Amino acid sequence: MIRSKPALMLALLAFLIAGAAWARPPHGPGGRHGPPARMIEEHAEELGLDQETREAIRELVDESRDQAEALHAELHELRRGMHGLLSEDEPDPEAVMAQIDAMGAVETQLHKHRVGTMLAIRARLSPEQRQALTQLRHEGRERWLAPLDEACAEDAERLCDGAEGPFERMHCLRQQQDALSEGCSEAFLQRRREKGRGDWGGRPAGPPFGSEPEPGQ
Fold first, then answer.
1. How far apart are CA 60 and CA 125, in angstroms?
2. Is 90 exposed, middle or buried (0-12, 13-18, 19+ CB in 10 A)?
3. What does the alpha-carbon distance between residue 167 and residue 163 come to, in Å, rounded to a whole number?
4. Contact 9, 97 (CB under 8 A)
């Protein structure tokens, strides 16, 4: 079956948008900057934060949110522009490539902005508070992964026998999705749905296997 050019261009657009979605940091209830700022707020007493530090972190988050929303709006318009370019009968390759560069530049700004905010929050915490926050986030991630780890136990034994701990096992399984059982595949799909609607179930922000620095590190 041979696809028409418009269909091929729209398929390319879908691929590009999907890639951009993976590049975006996930966000749960409370906005894009809910966790880890929300986690810090919820555990402020446990972390030993005074009122001045709490207010300083709130100000950082509010300012960061405004800037992030502007960047997301810009990225949204660029995607609309890409849709228009790829919908043409004869898309201009140079214009398409330039639009991809523009989208990538904004995505990079968003990523740097998020990391910059986390570093600014981190600077407000003492070494002991950062260590305690790291432990809280680790425990939260383990709770979030527990149902997935249980649903994929047989797959992990079959495909990832040498993997230790839930994070390493899930990372291994993600690399072999074509070989997963139906039950394990459905469990992964359910996790993605939860991410999409912001149903975090106690999971902190950020991918389990991401390399971004966190305030607690």
1. 13
2. exposed
3. 9
4. no
Length of the chain: 217
SS3 137: helix
d(CA 59, CA 33): 12
Question: Nearest-CA neighbor of 205 among 18, 24, 21?
Answer: 24
161, pLDDT greater than 80 = yes
Contact 188, 177 (CB under 8 A): yes
Q: Which of 210, 217, 215, 216 is nearest to 22 (CA)?
A: 210
Beta-carbon contacts of residue 33 (< 8 Å; ≥ 6 apart): 27, 61, 64, 65, 68, 117
The CATH number that domain 5-125 falls under is: 1.20.120.1490
Residues of the chain with CATH 1.20.120.1490: 5-125
Judge contact between 156 and 172, C-beta under 8 A. Answer: yes
For the stretch 66-119, pLDDT in tens is 889 999 999 999 999 999 998 888 889 999 999 999 999 999 999 999 889 888
The residue among 201, 206, 207 whose CA lies nearest residue 174 is: 207
Rounded CA-CA distance 155/151 in Å is: 9
Q: Which residue shows structure tokens 């998020």?
A: 114
Q: What is the DSSP letter of 177?
A: G
